[in-house]
Amino acid sequence: LAQLKSFWVQAMKHVRIMLVSVIPLVCGSYFPLQADSNDSLLRVIAQRSDDTVKVELLCKVSNNLARTFPQKSLQYGNTAWELAQNLPSKRLNALALYSVATAQYRLGNYVPALEFATKAKSQYEELGDTPKIAQCLNRIGTLYKNQKQYDEAIIALNESLRLFRSVGATVGMAAPTNNLGETYRSQGKNAEALPYFFQTLAIETANKDSSGMAEDLANIAETYRRLERFDSAQHYYTLALGIGWDLYSRSEILSGLGRLMVDKKDFRQAMNYGNQAYVIDSSSGFKLRQKESLEILAESSAQLGNFTQAYTLQKRLIAVSEELYNEENI
Questions:
Q1: What predicted TM-score, i.e. pTM, was given to this entire model?
Q2: Which is higher by pLDDT, 290 or 91?
Q3: Are the C-beta atoms of residues 158 and 132 closer than 8 Å to each other?
């Protein structure tokens, strides 16, 4: 408990400052800047004949788009991978493989994501690139977690954390620490998960990573929700919503607030948050998130007595669930 309090104090020293400094991003400045950056990179790609440079830049664009437009991210990642296969560079092959893995992960396509992440790890192992191996292991662990292979997830994530620690990469340690928390929480071990999220928040607030902070705050909120500490959950979700500017984070936070409102039996507010999340999920291709937002909307509609709408939403939910199942079992 004392250690948890220490993590919390360290993290929250920065949160209020970050809320003030990052709010302009929420008001729209981030996305035009990102679009301009990607457009500039694409113009450079079109002008270059050197495939080595093209692969580097295509991977950068793919990674930039993974959290906001994963389908486009996958297109650029696949193009990079096609080019990289004809180059002798293992580093570029690994870079392209990992870009495809990340885009597939964001789309909820876990089987191909795991295949590409594993191939990328093998390439980096041949190169002896410890931080990149750790990065791949973190992605692999997350993919195992999402497929409910929890023992494999914990092994991969702990190895990722060990490798990041071995090279003094404190910032890199945030991702496997967070994902260990998510893995324990997925098994219903909520009290065990909570310290991991506070540790991650401390790392990312010190690094002024607003996107990471938003996810950490949302994870803390969701864990409190599962512990039925609803006031604490709403407090942390509200903090997260204030700095969660990218679409992937915003979708997660809005769905979390929707689930919280269902728990509190405020079904009109649950519909409000669920609808906002679903608009993001359906337009951006976040299929797993679509399933979550549709669950909120279907249940809330039924609880409000709108059974026709609930039936329509339930049919849509079944279709999305079947699509996810088929992709995971190809």
A1: 0.79
A2: 91
A3: no
